[in-house]
Amino acid sequence: xxxxxxxxxxxxxxxxxxxxQTEIYMETSYLSEPLIDLVRSVECLIPSLNExxxxxxxxxxxxxxxxxxxxxxxxxxxxxxIRIEIKLFEDGxxxxxxxxxxxxxxxxxEFIQELVEALEMLLKNHGLVGSIxxxxxxxx
Length: 140
Description:
The chain has 140 residues and is an alpha+beta fold.
């Protein structure tokens, strides 16, 4: 399994996800909060991180890719296994059935590890909000 998230421009990111033999590339835009949606959704699948009535076995969220939309559906199939399904709505209209790009099972903890590594790489490469511009000001 592999998950990467790379910032390509202000508000834009390139995503690579490989599970088993299936791999996809997605471009996310500033119109959604892709990493927040992904992290919060994964948190909802872990009972110890939620109130008993708030934990879920299925979460869905959309990533805007202008004009396309990628709809994620993550289903907990066992204590340690999840199924990730990603559908593409090429024209951004979600009333049609969309194209299924990925439907694979993986280990929840392995997915979390990949997500954490991607987030750490973003922090390493870009710092916290404002820290890059602040350090440039100090250097002048």
